[in-house]
Specification:
disordered C terminus; DUF4168 domain-containing protein; signal; 173 residues
Length: 173
């Protein structure tokens, strides 16, 4: 059949085939387009996760600052810089009690991180579902406009959260 076709006919057939692929691709992209509602859902969950990360950092810093041996965090930094190097630990005169306190803080932090790592995938699964999470995340990788829209939405949510927490703090005094 192809032998009997002219070059022009083959060319037209090839163009028609490419056009159909292009249309199929366009339809597939439209079907995968992220709606404003989906983006808002995604941003809401990511905002919760970011808030959880910030809370984890605050709790970690509080554990460090409230430990009497860590001198409001100054000694913690010295130990952190020397940790794993016995010569440096000796150089800063780290006591066994300080080393035990430092290790305890690390253990508490590891427990906090483990708790976070257990909670956040469930939050994604329960509030978004894996399909929606992957759809939005992947779409943002290839769509700069969508990523910008997401960043603006997330920033708006975070500024609202900050305003709410300032109001909450102000009311407790």
């Amino acid at each position: 059949m192809f032998k009997a076709m002219t070059k022009k006919a083959k060319f037209i057939l090839m163009l028609a085939f490419l056009a159909s692929l292009s249309l199929q691709s366009s339809f597939a992209q439209d079907a995968e387009a992220v709606t404003d509602e989906e983006l808002t859902q995604y941003a809401t969950v990511m905002n919760k996760i970011d808030s959880m990360k910030e809370d984890l950092q605050v709790r970690y810093n509080e554990v460090i600052k409230t430990n009497e041996l860590m001198d409001e965090g100054r000694r913690f930094l010295e130990l952190k810089n020397a940790w794993g190097n016995d010569a440096k630990l000796a150089e800063i005169s780290a006591t066994d009690e300080e080393k035990a306190a430092y290790q305890s803080i690390l253990d508490q932090y590891d427990a906090m991180v483990a708790e976070f790592k257990e909670v956040y995938p469930n939050l994604i699964k329960d509030d978004l579902g894996a399909a929606l999470y992957n759809k939005v995340r992947n779409a943002m990788k290839s769509d700069a406009e969508l990523k910008t829209k997401y960043d603006e939405l997330l920033a708006s949510m975070q500024s609202t959260d900050e305003g709410d927490s300032e109001t909450d703090d102000g009311g407790s005094n």
